[in-house]
TrEMBL record:
InterPro entries: BCALP. Belongs to the BLCAP family. It comes from Chiloscyllium punctatum (Brownbanded bambooshark). This is Bladder cancer-associated protein. It is found in: Membrane. Coiled coil: none annotated. Its main location: membrane.
Length: 87
């Protein structure tokens, strides 16, 4: 379970508020996880616990999932509203 101390803080990194940065954030997090899995080779139990936690966070749409954006969140709709975004 030593390898979980390197994986669990990844779930606590907040997603940026600016929708333009979501792609960069998801690519960075994806490459970090891929490089971690290839370099450190965590045990199977740690990898399964992390993937289960990631799946539950993304499935519940708590707003911190870096893989995709949930459709019900108000930020992307309001980001393109000309009344909110000034000229």
């Amino acid at each position: 379970m030593y390898c979980l101390q390197w994986l669990l803080p990844v779930l606590l990194i907040p997603k940026p508020l600016n929708p333009a940065l979501w792609f960069n954030h998801s690519m960075f997090m994806g490459f970090y996880l891929l490089s971690f899995l290839l370099e450190r080779k965590p045990c199977t139990i740690c990898a399964l616990v992390f993937l289960a936690a990631l799946f539950l966070i993304c499935y519940s749409c708590w707003g911190n999932c870096f893989l995709y954006h949930c459709g019900g969140a108000p930020l992307p709709d309001s980001a393109h509203d000309p009344n909110i975004v000034g000229t």
